Amino acid sequence: MTTPQELDLTTISPTRLWVPQHVMITRAAADLPHTAEIIRRCERAGVDDIRFLPGNALTGLRGASERETYASAKNTLAVVVAPPSALKPQPIPPSADWRIDLAKGCPAHCQYCYLAGSLQGPPVTRVYANIDDVLDGIRTHAGRGSVTRGTLERGNEGTTFEMSCYTDPLGIESVTGSLAAAISRVGAGEFGSDVQMRFTTKFDDVGELVTLDHGRRTRVRFSVNAAEVANRFEGGTARMPARLAALRAVAAAGYRVGLTIAPIMPIPGWREQYGALLDDVSGAVAGIGDLDLTAEIITHRFTPASKEVLLGWYPKTKLEMDEDLRSQKRSKFGGVKYVYPKQTMTEMREWFTEELERRLPAARLLYWT
Ligand code: SF4
Protein backbone atom coordinates (compact mmCIF):
# COMPACT_ATOMS: atom_id res chain seq x y z
CA MET A 1 0.00 0.00 0.00
CA THR A 2 1.21 3.52 -0.77
CA THR A 3 1.41 5.57 2.40
CA PRO A 4 0.80 9.33 2.49
CA GLN A 5 4.57 9.72 3.04
CA GLU A 6 5.25 7.90 -0.20
CA LEU A 7 2.85 10.15 -2.06
CA ASP A 8 5.11 13.11 -2.62
CA LEU A 9 2.76 15.96 -3.51
CA THR A 10 5.58 18.12 -4.81
CA THR A 11 6.15 15.66 -7.65
CA ILE A 12 2.54 15.79 -8.82
CA SER A 13 2.70 18.49 -11.41
CA PRO A 14 0.56 18.51 -14.51
CA THR A 15 2.12 17.98 -17.90
CA ARG A 16 -0.79 19.63 -19.69
CA LEU A 17 -2.56 22.70 -18.35
CA TRP A 18 -5.11 24.66 -20.33
CA VAL A 19 -4.92 28.41 -19.86
CA PRO A 20 -7.54 30.33 -21.85
CA GLN A 21 -6.44 33.40 -23.77
CA HIS A 22 -9.80 35.07 -23.28
CA VAL A 23 -12.24 34.98 -20.39
CA MET A 24 -15.73 36.45 -20.81
CA ILE A 25 -18.05 36.93 -17.87
CA THR A 26 -21.73 37.45 -18.51
CA ARG A 27 -23.68 40.03 -16.60
CA ALA A 28 -25.74 37.41 -14.74
CA ALA A 29 -22.57 35.63 -13.61
CA ALA A 30 -20.61 38.73 -12.65
CA ASP A 31 -21.46 38.94 -8.96
CA LEU A 32 -21.68 35.27 -8.03
CA PRO A 33 -19.15 34.02 -5.45
CA HIS A 34 -17.88 31.21 -7.67
CA THR A 35 -17.08 33.77 -10.39
CA ALA A 36 -14.70 35.48 -7.94
CA GLU A 37 -12.93 32.14 -7.48
CA ILE A 38 -12.73 31.64 -11.26
CA ILE A 39 -11.27 35.12 -11.74
CA ARG A 40 -8.75 34.48 -8.97
CA ARG A 41 -7.66 31.26 -10.65
CA CYS A 42 -7.48 32.85 -14.11
CA GLU A 43 -5.38 35.73 -12.82
CA ARG A 44 -3.08 33.29 -11.06
CA ALA A 45 -2.70 31.42 -14.36
CA GLY A 46 -1.66 34.65 -16.08
CA VAL A 47 -4.80 35.36 -18.14
CA ASP A 48 -4.84 39.08 -18.86
CA ASP A 49 -7.91 39.32 -21.09
CA ILE A 50 -10.77 39.01 -18.60
CA ARG A 51 -13.83 40.87 -19.85
CA PHE A 52 -17.16 41.64 -18.22
CA LEU A 53 -19.89 41.58 -20.86
CA PRO A 54 -22.71 44.13 -20.75
CA GLY A 55 -25.34 41.39 -21.15
CA ASN A 56 -25.73 37.63 -21.12
CA ALA A 57 -25.11 36.90 -24.80
CA LEU A 58 -21.64 35.70 -25.75
CA THR A 59 -20.58 37.98 -28.56
CA GLY A 60 -17.53 38.24 -30.77
CA LEU A 61 -16.96 34.50 -31.00
CA ARG A 62 -16.95 34.31 -34.79
CA GLY A 63 -13.66 34.75 -36.64
CA ALA A 64 -13.11 35.49 -40.33
CA SER A 65 -13.12 31.78 -41.17
CA GLU A 66 -14.35 28.51 -39.61
CA ARG A 67 -10.74 27.80 -38.67
CA GLU A 68 -10.38 31.10 -36.83
CA THR A 69 -13.72 30.68 -35.09
CA TYR A 70 -12.71 27.22 -33.89
CA ALA A 71 -9.28 28.37 -32.67
CA SER A 72 -10.63 31.40 -30.87
CA ALA A 73 -13.52 29.48 -29.25
CA LYS A 74 -11.17 26.76 -28.01
CA ASN A 75 -9.08 29.48 -26.37
CA THR A 76 -12.03 31.09 -24.62
CA LEU A 77 -13.60 30.44 -21.25
CA ALA A 78 -17.06 31.90 -20.78
CA VAL A 79 -18.39 32.27 -17.26
CA VAL A 80 -22.16 31.96 -17.47
CA VAL A 81 -25.20 31.10 -15.39
CA ALA A 82 -26.65 27.66 -16.15
CA PRO A 83 -30.23 28.07 -17.33
CA PRO A 84 -32.96 26.12 -15.48
CA SER A 85 -33.13 23.62 -18.37
CA ALA A 86 -29.49 22.68 -17.74
CA LEU A 87 -30.02 22.26 -14.01
CA LYS A 88 -32.48 19.41 -14.08
CA PRO A 89 -30.51 16.16 -13.67
CA GLN A 90 -31.12 13.68 -16.49
CA PRO A 91 -30.65 9.89 -16.36
CA ILE A 92 -27.42 8.95 -18.09
CA PRO A 93 -27.27 5.21 -18.75
CA PRO A 94 -25.10 3.17 -18.58
CA SER A 95 -22.75 5.45 -16.61
CA ALA A 96 -24.82 6.88 -13.78
CA ASP A 97 -28.22 7.60 -12.35
CA TRP A 98 -27.99 11.32 -13.13
CA ARG A 99 -25.99 13.82 -15.10
CA ILE A 100 -24.72 16.98 -13.41
CA ASP A 101 -22.94 19.56 -15.57
CA LEU A 102 -20.28 21.82 -14.09
CA ALA A 103 -19.52 23.20 -17.55
CA LYS A 104 -20.29 22.69 -21.22
CA GLY A 105 -17.49 22.50 -23.75
CA CYS A 106 -13.89 21.37 -23.61
CA PRO A 107 -10.61 22.96 -24.67
CA ALA A 108 -8.99 19.76 -25.98
CA HIS A 109 -8.89 18.75 -29.64
CA CYS A 110 -9.90 15.10 -29.92
CA GLN A 111 -10.68 14.31 -33.53
CA TYR A 112 -13.50 11.98 -32.52
CA CYS A 113 -14.86 14.37 -29.86
CA TYR A 114 -18.06 13.12 -28.22
CA LEU A 115 -19.36 16.66 -27.99
CA ALA A 116 -19.35 17.24 -31.74
CA GLY A 117 -22.90 17.59 -32.91
CA SER A 118 -24.34 18.01 -29.43
CA LEU A 119 -23.18 21.58 -28.74
CA GLN A 120 -24.54 24.55 -30.62
CA GLY A 121 -22.29 27.20 -32.17
CA PRO A 122 -18.54 27.76 -31.78
CA PRO A 123 -16.93 25.30 -29.33
CA VAL A 124 -16.33 27.74 -26.48
CA THR A 125 -16.10 26.31 -22.96
CA ARG A 126 -18.88 27.63 -20.73
CA VAL A 127 -18.37 27.16 -17.01
CA TYR A 128 -21.37 27.51 -14.73
CA ALA A 129 -20.96 30.20 -12.10
CA ASN A 130 -24.12 29.23 -10.19
CA ILE A 131 -22.46 26.13 -8.80
CA ASP A 132 -24.81 26.00 -5.80
CA ASP A 133 -27.75 25.56 -8.19
CA VAL A 134 -25.86 22.91 -10.17
CA LEU A 135 -24.99 20.90 -7.06
CA ASP A 136 -28.49 21.27 -5.73
CA GLY A 137 -29.41 18.57 -8.26
CA ILE A 138 -27.51 16.14 -6.03
CA ARG A 139 -29.64 17.15 -3.08
CA THR A 140 -32.93 16.81 -4.95
CA HIS A 141 -32.03 13.50 -6.67
CA ALA A 142 -30.12 11.61 -3.97
CA GLY A 143 -32.05 8.42 -3.26
CA ARG A 144 -33.74 8.50 -6.68
CA GLY A 145 -32.83 6.97 -10.02
CA SER A 146 -32.61 3.44 -11.38
CA VAL A 147 -29.66 3.29 -13.78
CA THR A 148 -27.16 2.10 -11.16
CA ARG A 149 -29.04 2.64 -7.89
CA GLY A 150 -30.79 -0.47 -6.67
CA THR A 151 -29.03 -2.72 -9.19
CA LEU A 152 -27.29 -5.87 -8.11
CA GLU A 153 -24.00 -4.90 -9.73
CA ARG A 154 -23.72 -1.25 -8.73
CA GLY A 155 -26.30 -0.59 -6.03
CA ASN A 156 -23.49 -0.28 -3.47
CA GLU A 157 -22.42 3.00 -5.12
CA GLY A 158 -25.52 4.76 -3.83
CA THR A 159 -27.03 7.36 -6.16
CA THR A 160 -24.48 8.13 -8.87
CA PHE A 161 -23.88 11.50 -10.53
CA GLU A 162 -21.84 11.81 -13.75
CA MET A 163 -20.01 15.10 -14.23
CA SER A 164 -18.22 14.61 -17.53
CA CYS A 165 -20.99 14.35 -20.09
CA TYR A 166 -20.40 17.75 -21.63
CA THR A 167 -16.89 18.67 -20.53
CA ASP A 168 -13.60 17.34 -19.25
CA PRO A 169 -13.89 18.82 -15.76
CA LEU A 170 -10.24 18.21 -14.84
CA GLY A 171 -9.08 19.85 -18.06
CA ILE A 172 -10.53 23.17 -16.93
CA GLU A 173 -10.09 22.75 -13.20
CA SER A 174 -7.02 24.95 -12.75
CA VAL A 175 -9.02 27.97 -13.95
CA THR A 176 -12.47 27.04 -12.56
CA GLY A 177 -12.15 25.19 -9.24
CA SER A 178 -15.59 23.68 -9.82
CA LEU A 179 -14.44 20.12 -9.36
CA ALA A 180 -12.64 20.86 -6.09
CA ALA A 181 -15.79 22.56 -4.79
CA ALA A 182 -18.00 19.64 -5.80
CA ILE A 183 -15.66 16.93 -4.48
CA SER A 184 -15.17 18.71 -1.14
CA ARG A 185 -18.87 19.34 -0.57
CA VAL A 186 -19.90 15.81 -1.46
CA GLY A 187 -16.95 14.48 0.54
CA ALA A 188 -18.04 16.46 3.60
CA GLY A 189 -21.40 14.71 3.47
CA GLU A 190 -23.43 17.79 2.55
CA PHE A 191 -25.66 15.63 0.35
CA GLY A 192 -25.71 12.55 2.58
CA SER A 193 -23.47 9.53 2.68
CA ASP A 194 -25.13 7.49 -0.05
CA VAL A 195 -24.15 9.50 -3.13
CA GLN A 196 -21.20 9.07 -5.44
CA MET A 197 -19.87 11.46 -8.07
CA ARG A 198 -17.90 10.29 -11.07
CA PHE A 199 -16.06 11.92 -13.91
CA THR A 200 -13.64 10.90 -16.61
CA THR A 201 -10.67 12.86 -17.90
CA LYS A 202 -7.78 12.95 -20.32
CA PHE A 203 -5.82 15.37 -18.15
CA ASP A 204 -3.40 14.86 -15.28
CA ASP A 205 -3.80 17.97 -13.12
CA VAL A 206 -4.48 16.11 -9.87
CA GLY A 207 -2.18 18.04 -7.50
CA GLU A 208 -5.10 19.81 -5.83
CA LEU A 209 -7.45 16.82 -5.93
CA VAL A 210 -5.15 14.64 -3.84
CA THR A 211 -5.23 17.18 -1.02
CA LEU A 212 -9.04 17.23 -0.77
CA ASP A 213 -11.18 15.51 1.79
CA HIS A 214 -13.12 13.48 -0.75
CA GLY A 215 -14.62 10.94 1.65
CA ARG A 216 -14.20 8.30 -1.08
CA ARG A 217 -17.40 9.62 -2.63
CA THR A 218 -15.88 10.50 -6.00
CA ARG A 219 -14.68 8.05 -8.61
CA VAL A 220 -11.96 9.54 -10.81
CA ARG A 221 -11.78 7.73 -14.13
CA PHE A 222 -9.10 8.22 -16.73
CA SER A 223 -9.93 7.97 -20.38
CA VAL A 224 -7.28 5.68 -21.82
CA ASN A 225 -6.52 4.27 -25.22
CA ALA A 226 -3.95 2.47 -27.33
CA ALA A 227 -0.86 4.65 -27.81
CA GLU A 228 -1.49 5.06 -31.52
CA VAL A 229 -5.07 6.27 -31.05
CA ALA A 230 -4.19 8.61 -28.18
CA ASN A 231 -1.14 10.12 -29.89
CA ARG A 232 -2.84 10.59 -33.22
CA PHE A 233 -6.33 11.71 -32.30
CA GLU A 234 -6.27 13.27 -28.81
CA GLY A 235 -4.72 16.70 -29.31
CA GLY A 236 -4.33 19.05 -26.36
CA THR A 237 -4.60 16.31 -23.73
CA ALA A 238 -2.08 14.77 -21.32
CA ARG A 239 -0.10 11.88 -22.84
CA MET A 240 -0.93 8.37 -21.70
CA PRO A 241 2.00 7.86 -19.25
CA ALA A 242 1.03 11.14 -17.54
CA ARG A 243 -2.61 10.02 -17.21
CA LEU A 244 -1.49 6.74 -15.68
CA ALA A 245 0.79 8.55 -13.21
CA ALA A 246 -2.20 10.70 -12.26
CA LEU A 247 -4.32 7.56 -11.87
CA ARG A 248 -1.76 6.18 -9.44
CA ALA A 249 -1.65 9.47 -7.51
CA VAL A 250 -5.42 9.71 -6.98
CA ALA A 251 -5.74 6.01 -6.16
CA ALA A 252 -2.96 6.37 -3.59
CA ALA A 253 -4.83 9.35 -2.16
CA GLY A 254 -7.80 7.04 -1.51
CA TYR A 255 -10.08 7.94 -4.40
CA ARG A 256 -12.10 5.25 -6.08
CA VAL A 257 -10.75 5.12 -9.60
CA GLY A 258 -11.64 3.83 -13.02
CA LEU A 259 -10.71 3.44 -16.64
CA THR A 260 -12.82 4.64 -19.50
CA ILE A 261 -11.24 2.63 -22.31
CA ALA A 262 -12.62 4.65 -25.19
CA PRO A 263 -13.15 4.95 -27.99
CA ILE A 264 -11.65 1.60 -28.85
CA MET A 265 -10.78 1.08 -32.50
CA PRO A 266 -9.70 -2.08 -34.32
CA ILE A 267 -6.50 -0.48 -35.62
CA PRO A 268 -3.80 -2.77 -37.09
CA GLY A 269 -2.22 -4.66 -34.18
CA TRP A 270 -5.02 -3.65 -31.82
CA ARG A 271 -4.62 -6.70 -29.58
CA GLU A 272 -0.95 -5.92 -28.95
CA GLN A 273 -1.58 -2.21 -28.47
CA TYR A 274 -4.50 -2.58 -26.07
CA GLY A 275 -2.65 -5.43 -24.34
CA ALA A 276 0.29 -3.07 -23.70
CA LEU A 277 -2.16 -0.48 -22.36
CA LEU A 278 -3.69 -2.92 -19.88
CA ASP A 279 -0.21 -3.97 -18.75
CA ASP A 280 0.75 -0.33 -18.25
CA VAL A 281 -2.36 0.25 -16.14
CA SER A 282 -1.53 -2.85 -14.11
CA GLY A 283 1.90 -1.39 -13.41
CA ALA A 284 0.42 1.98 -12.51
CA VAL A 285 -1.87 0.59 -9.80
CA ALA A 286 0.53 -2.04 -8.45
CA GLY A 287 0.81 -1.97 -4.67
CA ILE A 288 -2.04 0.48 -4.05
CA GLY A 289 -3.92 -0.59 -0.93
CA ASP A 290 -7.74 -0.50 -0.86
CA LEU A 291 -7.84 -0.16 -4.63
CA ASP A 292 -11.35 0.20 -6.05
CA LEU A 293 -10.88 0.07 -9.83
CA THR A 294 -13.59 -0.14 -12.47
CA ALA A 295 -13.51 -0.30 -16.26
CA GLU A 296 -15.96 0.98 -18.84
CA ILE A 297 -15.34 0.03 -22.46
CA ILE A 298 -16.81 2.03 -25.34
CA THR A 299 -16.27 1.32 -29.03
CA HIS A 300 -15.94 4.13 -31.52
CA ARG A 301 -19.13 5.33 -33.18
CA PHE A 302 -20.29 8.41 -35.04
CA THR A 303 -23.52 9.97 -36.25
CA PRO A 304 -24.14 11.91 -39.46
CA ALA A 305 -24.22 15.13 -37.41
CA SER A 306 -21.04 14.44 -35.46
CA LYS A 307 -19.19 13.44 -38.64
CA GLU A 308 -20.13 16.68 -40.33
CA VAL A 309 -19.01 18.81 -37.39
CA LEU A 310 -15.76 16.84 -36.94
CA LEU A 311 -14.86 17.13 -40.63
CA GLY A 312 -15.43 20.89 -40.32
CA TRP A 313 -13.11 21.07 -37.30
CA TYR A 314 -10.52 18.54 -38.52
CA PRO A 315 -10.74 18.43 -42.33
CA LYS A 316 -7.50 16.44 -42.66
CA THR A 317 -8.33 13.84 -40.06
CA LYS A 318 -7.30 10.23 -40.65
CA LEU A 319 -10.06 9.03 -38.38
CA GLU A 320 -12.10 6.34 -40.12
CA MET A 321 -15.72 7.49 -40.41
CA ASP A 322 -16.78 5.44 -43.42
CA GLU A 323 -20.46 4.46 -43.35
CA ASP A 324 -19.76 1.56 -45.73
CA LEU A 325 -17.45 -0.08 -43.20
CA ARG A 326 -19.95 0.23 -40.37
CA SER A 327 -23.27 -1.13 -39.16
CA GLN A 328 -26.18 1.19 -38.62
CA LYS A 329 -27.79 1.30 -35.23
CA ARG A 330 -31.05 3.15 -34.59
CA SER A 331 -31.85 4.79 -31.28
CA LYS A 332 -35.35 4.61 -29.86
CA PHE A 333 -35.87 8.19 -31.04
CA GLY A 334 -35.02 7.24 -34.63
CA GLY A 335 -31.49 8.70 -34.73
CA VAL A 336 -28.78 6.78 -36.56
CA LYS A 337 -25.31 5.95 -35.37
CA TYR A 338 -22.58 4.00 -37.08
CA VAL A 339 -20.84 1.30 -35.07
CA TYR A 340 -18.43 -1.48 -36.03
CA PRO A 341 -19.92 -4.54 -37.74
CA LYS A 342 -21.15 -7.38 -35.55
CA GLN A 343 -18.19 -9.68 -36.11
CA THR A 344 -15.64 -7.00 -35.20
CA MET A 345 -17.68 -6.09 -32.12
CA THR A 346 -17.84 -9.71 -30.97
CA GLU A 347 -14.10 -10.24 -31.49
CA MET A 348 -13.21 -7.08 -29.59
CA ARG A 349 -15.66 -7.75 -26.80
CA GLU A 350 -14.38 -11.28 -26.22
CA TRP A 351 -10.79 -10.15 -26.30
CA PHE A 352 -11.30 -7.25 -23.90
CA THR A 353 -13.35 -9.28 -21.44
CA GLU A 354 -10.77 -12.04 -21.30
CA GLU A 355 -7.68 -9.85 -21.26
CA LEU A 356 -9.05 -7.48 -18.66
CA GLU A 357 -9.60 -10.43 -16.37
CA ARG A 358 -6.19 -11.89 -17.11
CA ARG A 359 -4.02 -8.75 -17.12
CA LEU A 360 -5.93 -6.55 -14.72
CA PRO A 361 -7.90 -8.81 -12.38
CA ALA A 362 -8.42 -5.96 -9.92
CA ALA A 363 -10.66 -4.12 -12.42
CA ARG A 364 -14.41 -4.62 -12.34
CA LEU A 365 -15.97 -4.27 -15.81
CA LEU A 366 -19.09 -2.08 -15.50
CA TYR A 367 -20.23 -2.19 -19.11
CA TRP A 368 -19.25 -2.62 -22.72
CA THR A 369 -20.92 -0.68 -25.48
S1 SF4 B 1 -11.38 15.44 -23.91
FE1 SF4 B 1 -13.46 14.64 -24.39
S2 SF4 B 1 -14.74 16.48 -24.54
FE2 SF4 B 1 -12.60 17.16 -24.68
S3 SF4 B 1 -12.14 17.27 -26.88
FE3 SF4 B 1 -11.54 15.22 -26.14
S4 SF4 B 1 -13.34 13.90 -26.48
FE4 SF4 B 1 -14.02 16.05 -26.64
UniProtKB/TrEMBL annotation:
By what name is this protein known? Radical SAM protein
Which source organism? Arthrobacter burdickii
Q: Which domain of life is it from?
A: Bacteria
One Pfam entry name: SPL
